[in-house]
Design goal:
32% helix; Hypothetical Protein Tm841, Chain: A,domain 3; alpha/beta; homodimer; Rossmann fold; 2 domains
């Protein structure tokens, strides 16, 4: 295993210390609980938007804490849910009278721990479950996984909370964005979890893994490596069938790198995906290309499409100031 | 070779088409010349800041075109200088009466072609040569290479030009930032150039390459893989000896990923580097961590330190709106 690392068991703490130091102008850090919170939060009551999960997906979630997005992020060990105590600590830190909304990616550990945390809280709270991964059928036994669409839910709900929306409105909005979002990923390589020290699955030199999640687990299908046009067409066909996009629909197109894929390839994927949509009359009105929801050092990418109406577009465009998304 | 690609010979054009489409709100694209220019440039005369070079280093340079930074970027093939005709086309597009400043990384091909382009131009022009890579001695036969410090030169000079500095001032400022900047890189793996189809050098599983540039060339020394503390201490010792930083000096600390290194590891490197500086009384007043000057899919990172005075700090903080650097 070749990594910049001292010891696997200290990596997360050392890395979060560096992250919080590099962004000390906008973030607070509770080293004991491994919770990143927003500096200079709202003075008037505002729904506290909290997310979190296993690490290894950076910049998700800590990179999205700040004005107009998350109020706090809880970091578990790599690919491991944070505990209810971390979530409770985060809530106690940022709740200011308007309740707490947890944004939870659909994985058994995260779901269980956020549910326990919700029961522990004294304040009003609700949860949005993100399950945007359309590589699994809607009736899959564990439900669909939450992947790169999570940041879109976080951005749009975060903007609404910033504008003063109440808890019920934020919850309903999160569910709406989740419904309007579909993602699918493909891996060219596995990732290597430091504590394991070797790739979590193996692919031959001429194979790719279609329908992967973000935890180095196997995808739906191992298939031969083909050209980018064919790979992107396969992803986009599944995504568009699921979303049932009609012509003239406005969408956000998000190409997400899993960690080890060069920007040049991600923009090639974006180009092919945008042509796929253009041929069908679907209008790409906003774009996001880069490493946002990663899987350590995995080579691969996912494509996410979110159908936008005028209200969602305004919230997407609203000002945001976090370590890894910033505009307005 | 596993990449998202149709054919090596069409990768660059397809990728730039996607890039320019994703950022059409701030950029123009001349597909014939492969030149990205800033949309909505200055109306009053302003020094045109132009850079460029071989591609494979994204987001450098095209990702830094926009308000407060570059006016144009010329893209050569992967790791191959653009031609003087591309540079001339870029200059003709963005020059508006205050002359042209070329920011050139010190590589033979780039230097030669930018010199030819300068002779071809009818307007006043000057060049800043960036040579921040301290892994090579100052008296190296080809001079030191320009690496991740280039974006710092581009940001600071771009801010000055935006504020109305004249050509001589921008040129002197670029030289000053270059002098105040030192970088050094280390690779855990080689990169794979698509047209070659295999890694450009080989490392054993327990070896790293110290003092690498950004073109997949061998570094100064192949050495055993050690822990992150030791690797970072080696980089920082060389950098600080070169800069001759005194205690109380304010610096910008930039940890740059080469493309395949997870964010978690980059922030670990940042944490160790910032402690190294703190022990010596050197004050990190600004930070930048992420993939900014890459080498395709190389695993590795570089550290850059720039000594900042009050004037440079103000210019670094000045508003910027590009695809990959945005604030203010």
């Amino acid at each position: 295993m070749k990594k910049f690392i001292n010891r696997p068991e200290t990596l997360l703490a050392e890395s979060l210390a560096g992250f919080s130091k590099a962004h000390a102008n906008i973030l607070n850090y509770d080293a004991e609980q491994k919770v990143i919170t927003r500096l200079n939060g709202s003075e008037k009551p505002k729904v506290a938007i909290i997310s979190g999960g296993g690490t290894g997906h950076e910049p998700l979630h800590a990179g999205f804490v700040g004005m107009g997005m998350l109020d706090a992020a809880c970091s578990g060990e790599i690919f491991t849910s944070p505990t209810p105590f971390q979530m409770e600590a985060a809530a106690n830190c940022v709740e200011n009278g308007a309740g707490v909304l947890f944004i939870v990616k659909n994985y058994a550990g995260d779901v269980m721990n956020f549910e326990i945390a919700a029961e522990m809280l004294d304040c009003e709270n609700a949860s949005v479950l993100v399950c945007d991964d359309v590589s699994l059928p809607k009736d899959h036994s564990a439900g669909r996984r939450g992947v790169a669409g999570t940041l879109i839910v976080e951005k749009i709900v975060g903007a609404a909370a910033e504008k003063g929306a109440d808890l019920a409105t934020c919850k309903a909005l999160g569910d709406k964005v989740n419904e309007a979002t579909a993602s699918m990923g493909v891996a060219l390589s596995s990732c290597t979890v430091p504590a394991l020290g070797k790739p979590t699955f193996k692919l031959a030199d001429d194979e790719i893994e279609m329908g992967v999640g973000i935890h180095g687990e196997h995808g739906c299908k191992t298939q031969p490596l083909t050209d980018a046009n064919s790979i992107v067409a396969q992803l986009m066909t599944t995504i568009c069938e699921d979303l049932k996009c009609s012509a003239e629909q406005s969408v956000l197109l998000h190409v997400n790198g899993f960690g080890a894929t060069p920007s040049m390839e991600l923009y090639l994927v974006y180009e092919i995906a945008s042509q796929f949509l253009a041929i069908r009359g679907i209008k790409v009105v906003r774009s996001l290309v880069g490493n946002y929801t990663t899987s350590l050092d995995m080579a691969g990418c996912s494509i996410t499409v979110t159908c936008l109406d005028e209200a969602l577009l305004l919230l997407w465009d609203a000002p945001v100031h976090t370590a890894n998304l910033r505009w307005g």
